[in-house]
Amino acid sequence: MKKSTLPMFLAAALAAYVIPASSQVRPETQMKQRQAAMTLQGKYFYPIRAQAQGKVPYDAAIVARNVAYLDQLARMPWDGFTPATKDIKSRATPAVFTDTAKFKQAQDHFQAEVTKLVEVTRKGDEASIKNQILAVDKTCNSCHDDFRERN
Amino acid sequence: MKKSTLPMFLAAALAAYVIPASSQVRPETQMKQRQAAMTLQGKYFYPIRAQAQGKVPYDAAIVARNVAYLDQLARMPWDGFTPATKDIKSRATPAVFTDTAKFKQAQDHFQAEVTKLVEVTRKGDEASIKNQILAVDKTCNSCHDDFRERN
């Protein structure tokens, strides 16, 4: 078997080499990165939610900018919820790691509503935009109900 | 003077009402938000820098996605470096709050190089993309030299 040892070793080394960088990221860093994405979703969502709720005046320029950011930020947290992070203390509920299908469904629902927000924002009708901002808010809350521990 | 008191009060109340949401954000939250943007810049930049450095194989799909994210993330940290945050412990050097013109110049330089990266990535020439990734890396480091404390 000696003859095959070297090729096998090389194959293993090569496999390690081509693993995407993300899977080499420490679990603590993965958690920090996913929390960072959530923090920035808050930064750009809360001000436009306040506009949709009539708490601050509507500002189309802020909505357009924030929605463009949210379109990207909505995609960023999910790959940080890997099994490797399941024992690190965070507000992720155990369901994140056990009910992965439902968690994925909640992510997809959120992203679909954000995509819809991007579309209505492009069309520019204030009432529709405000309604859709509130629809996005519902998907945030509904996902948090199941997958984020209460403070 | 009693007659003018009410209008002045109303004007002040209105001014408070129309202040952008960002200026109502607690300094600690502003710091957390700017650090979140830096964390995500790292998440999406380090893997493509490793590709540019030849440490991992070049992957055009990952580069395209990460560069699109970085285009947005490059704009997100700067409004978090407000004077209100200057006494909160962080890695921001005092120069962030004293040499604001130079700090702004460093931000603009970084964003210009990221914009150039977006353009070369669109054109698709691997060697140019790799060079431009390394050019962006230089602007990160050069800004950190002046405006981020060493660990």
Question: What would you say this structure looks like, in words?
Answer:
The structure is a homodimer of 151-residue chains. Chain A has helices spanning 2-18, 27-52, 60-73, 95-98, 100-123, 126-147. The termini of chain A are far apart. Helix content of chain A is 71%, strand content 0%. In chain A, helix 2 (27-52) runs antiparallel to helix 6, helix 3 (60-73) runs antiparallel to helix 5 and helix 5 runs antiparallel to helix 6. The first copy, chain A, has 151 residues and is mainly alpha-helical. Chain A is elongated and about 45 Å long. Chain A is built from six helices and no strands. Residues 1-6 and 11-21 of chain A have low confidence and may be disordered. Chain A binds chain B through residues 17-18, 20-22, 25, 32-33, 35-37, 39-40, 42-43, 46-47, 50, 56-57, 62, 68-69, 72-73, 76, and chain B through 17-18, 20-22, 25, 32-33, 35-37, 39-40, 42-43, 46-47, 50, 56-57, 59, 62, 68-69, 72-73, 76.
Classify the secondary structure makeup of chain A into a structural class. mainly alpha
* Share of helical residues of chain A: over 70%
* Counted beta strands of chain A: 0
Span between termini of chain A: 58 Å
Most extensive interface: pair and counts? A-B, 26 and 27 residues
Query: What is the general shape of chain A?
Result: elongated
Q: Secondary-structure element order of chain A, as H and E?
A: HHHHHH
Quaternary assembly? homodimer
- Point out poorly predicted stretches of chain A: 1-6, 11-21
Contiguous helical run count of chain A = 6
What is the mean pLDDT of chain A?
Answer: 89
> What proportion of the residues of chain A form beta strands (DSSP E)?
under 5%
Q: In angstroms, what is the radius of gyration of chain A?
A: 20 Å
Largest sheet of chain A: none
